[in-house]
Amino acid sequence: xxxxxxxxxxxxxxxxxxxxxxxxxxxxxxxxxxxxxxxxxxxxxxxxxxxxxxxxxxxxxxxxxxxxxxxxxxxxxxxxxxxxxxxxxxxxxxxxxxxxxxxxxxxxxxxxxxxxxxxxxxxxxxxxxxxxxxxxxxxxxxxxxxxxxxxxxxxxxxxxxxxxxxxxxxxxxxxxxxxxxxxxxxxxxxxxxxxxxxxxxxxxxxxxxxxxxxxxxxxxxxxxxxxxxxxxxxxx
Length: 236
What we know:
By secondary structure, the chain is of the alpha+beta class. It has seven helices and ten strands. Helices cover 26% and strands 33% of the residues.
């Protein structure tokens, strides 16, 4: 039954309750939802309200329809990202697609992070991470041009050992990084490249530092919030 004191439309209230049941484990992946008639009675709403609530949860990736069978809870086992690890290994079906390598003017945020002037040219490497063929993360990495020009970072091929190996070879072995994590709604490009339902994205703005706290790389990592959970390891 919907709460009369709740100002949200009934379909949003119903979607929130169903979402809580799924996230809380009361509705497990693969579980078939009760019939529309049952949900109409349980929540005390109209048929159209049930359909709108289910449509929201399908768009968010919580539910899926099987033709001729009904509506089921989708398997949403998230990708676990250990925020304390700079470079996650990519075994078991992971692959990167290199989308772009170019020299671009640094935005205010990137310039501030790299201790350079806004608008100064930086090297951009833009990649799409896939898992089992499915796009799961869009990554943009920026490097000071004085450091990256003429190196493997400026090439259009995959880099054995990745950027950390190239930076170490140049004398800039990575010592630590700082992550700023936020959420927002996706851009049109992100919706297209990541095949996103109607969900926010997680944005990690990551600055990698070498010796003497010199910033040598800025990475902007964007991923669908319905696919990931972030794991932090903190001292007691």
